[in-house]
Amino acid sequence: MGERAGRVNGWLLGLLAFCLPLSTTAVTVLASLLLVGWLVEGNFREKFRDILANPLCLAVFAFIGAHLVGLLWSEHLDTGWEVINEQSKILILPVMLTTVRSEHRWRYLGAFIAGVTVIMLSTYLALFGLLSYADVTPAHLTKKTTHVFFNPMLALAIYLLLHRLCLGGVRGVARWLLLLLVGLMTVDMFITEGRAGQMVFFVLMGLLLVQCFLRRNLLAAVLLPLVLLPLVFVLFYRGSPMFRDRVDQAMLEISEFRRHPDTSVGLRLFYWKHSWRIISREPWLGVGTGDFFSAYARINWKFSSHMPFTDNPHNQYVYTAVQLGAFGLFFLLAMFAAQFFQARRLEGGWARPGMAFPLFFLVIMATESYLMVFETSFLFVLMSAVLYRGTSEWQARVGRDRPPAVRPRSWLILSYRANIAGSACAQHIDDRLPLLAAEGITPILLTGPVGERSDRWRHYRAWSLAPSGIRFEVRHFLRRRLARRWQFKLAETLLLLPVMPLYLLEKMVINLESEWSWCLAAAVRGLLLERRHRPEVLYSTGGSASAHAAALFIQRRSGVVWLAETQDPLVHDREWQRSRTVFRLYCWLERRIAAACTAFIFLTAQARENARQRVGDPFPGVVIHPGASPVLFTPPVAHVRGPHCHFAHFGTLAGSRNLLVFLRALSLLFAEQPDLRQVVRVDLYGSLDQPSRQLMVELGLAELVTDHGLIDRRQAVAAMQRADCLLLIQNTTYFSTETIPSKVYEYLLSGRPILGLVHDNRELTAMLADRGHRVARADDPRPVCDQLAALLRAHAAGAPGARAATAGPVLLDDAVRTLVALARGAVAATGGNGDGGGGHGTRG
């Protein structure tokens, strides 16, 4: 019985969507039948779980609740209950929300568009004199005041159709039919009278252009709305007498408002003017639910007794503010904030209409109290149910896809960078997520906004709050979307000009890393996520100290097991580049991390030892080499030995990590053995610094070097396997003694010989030498020249170039298993619930 009722309800909802623009009686009957069917269907536990987990439902309840509270200071309770009764139509949202099936979204929207199309066709029939009744004429194409809600619905229908055409993959005859329908609707928009619909039409078209081009071409997304929309306006202004008359009439009524306020636009301005007098007297709580008419009548009688009274200011914001003040406005706007919030989580392209609908409603509410109008209040409910029905992710969160008693193991992972192509910090965590999932762990990511949102994992983002962070994130956003440098610089200048004075002031006062302020927003959002998901482990990683600062805040307030992994050491004892104040701040943070975390994870033994000496014992230091995954090298790319010996370098060359020593070593080699010049070739994948480029020319080696520029990771892995020898170069700074470049682990899995130019790093030297690769000092051309000669002799003899290995590769799987074992041991020690406080795990 319940299942059959559910199927019938789906058809009732589609029929209601069709009748919404056509008949209030039909909508009332269908809504009543829908409520009865919803009660017959049963399954209330799951329904209420969905309702309570949906922010929009909660916001709607709060909005109606605010009106109930407003009765406490209302002078006219009978009128107040009437207002609540008019607003209460939106309370059917939970019924519709739990009736909608997400996979049938386009059916409901198609039914709504079909209803709008019926009215549109009737206006064309009236235009050509084929349809005529009392208040419909060729000069007035809609029945009575139908244009008040019809034109906004028409604008929304046009947006939905164009969105489907532009971004929905419609092909063939269907595409041409939809284009014809859009054309007819657009013309109809400007031969009918609804100015609110015409206004919101331009807003939605501008939004659609931005949505279509934002990811592909930011400049087009900005310029096209500025160019095309004025052209469309001029086209219809000149071509449609109705549109021209309505625009001219509105401009005339605004200009003559003071002398002749008794006009359509003039009355609205008059209502708002008097309403503002009421709001200024009761700004916080208003006059009470239902007291708009009486309060307006008193003001009107005092200042303009000759003008008519009103119970509707034709503006939802004004209507709410008069009755409930800022208190009511907050709950009104909270409903639309909830829609924006949920739209960001919609999948399958639905995020775009999910963002468009609240903007649509926010615009039209400036011209009418549309939550009081029958048709548009049901439109609000219908579209909210269709668009913001919980996705599979949301349903899983509230327990629809698993028994309520079972809670999956989850880790809350804080990393500023994730899902960023070419970023070593991002790849570090991105590569681990599938392996953590294979261990039965649900990753919950909290990152900065510079990477793309993951479509595989639960991914939340927070934004930096300081000017340096805003500048960094805006620049990164622009780089992803603007290929040409002039476009980037133009957009950067326009967007960041207001931020620059504050940025300079910040750098003078506190010169920290650009993303330092991310920890502020990440700490608050991370704590909320910890409260919601109750993860068994908190895992902070990445090159930014802000992730650990945020994790420290969360751990202190939750007691959850915390693994803190620093990819680059937070502090360097020598060659510190920033001020002593910043040095002391980072030392303080390092001590606090060591005191609170379960395990303080380092990527090298030297980094751990240096930190232990700064912090002192006991010290929860652990070394885990990140490793790389063999999956990257499947299918393998065969190496083909050619006449040239290709040395390949991957990554950024800048500062003291450059080709200068390598080029001088080549020059020495060619001076001693000139015939080898015909054999050596150098391939660079990534960025090349200017000093290296200049030295190539001075030494006459430029013709031997090919700069391939930036390539994606898959292409880089394939190029590694094709190279004859892989070149590794370290910075010649103290920093290099504590770090191992992440690409080393991919080099080790490539099967190709490696020549490492290493700076005072015994751990990296041993790692390469134990696996048969060659190492030379990074600051001396002579030993590099000797190693080059040996490699070229091996290449000429057809030998692999690598010597006997005494150790195997360093694998990502081993690193993840070690990480998970650390976490499991710590969780078990706290009783298995992750609430036992800090505690120290394995110690170095």
How would you summarize what this structure contains?
The protein is an alpha/beta fold.
Map the helices and strands.
Blueprint: H1 2-19, H2 24-41, H3 44-52, H4 55-70, H5 77-87, H6 93-97, H7 105-127, H8 147-167, H9 172-191, H10 195-213, H11 218-239, H12 241-255, H13 264-281, H14 292-303, H15 316-343, H16 351-364, H17 374-387, H18 392-398, E1 410-414, H19 424-430, H20 432-438, E2 442-447, E3 458-461, H21 467-481, H22 485-496, H23 500-509, H24 518-533, E4 537-540, H25 545-558, E5 561-566, H26 580-596, E6 599-602, H27 605-615, E7 621-623, E8 645-652, H28 660-672, E9 680-687, H29 690-699, E10 705-709, H30 713-722, E11 725-729, H31 743-750, E12 754-758, H32 762-769, E13 774-777, H33 781-796, H34 812-829
Parallel strand pairs: 1-2, 1-4, 2-3, 4-5, 5-6, 6-7, 8-9, 8-11, 9-10, 11-12, 12-13
Written account of the structure:
This protein has 844 residues and is an alpha/beta fold. The protein contains 34 helices and 13 strands. The strands form 2 sheets. It has a 7-stranded parallel beta sheet with strand order 3-2-1-4-5-6-7, sandwiched between helices. A 6-stranded parallel beta sheet has the order 10-9-8-11-12-13, sandwiched between helices. β12, α32 and β13 form a beta-alpha-beta unit. α1 packs antiparallel against α2, α10 packs antiparallel against α11 and α11 crosses α12. The radius of gyration is 33 Å and the shape is elongated. The two termini are 64 Å apart.
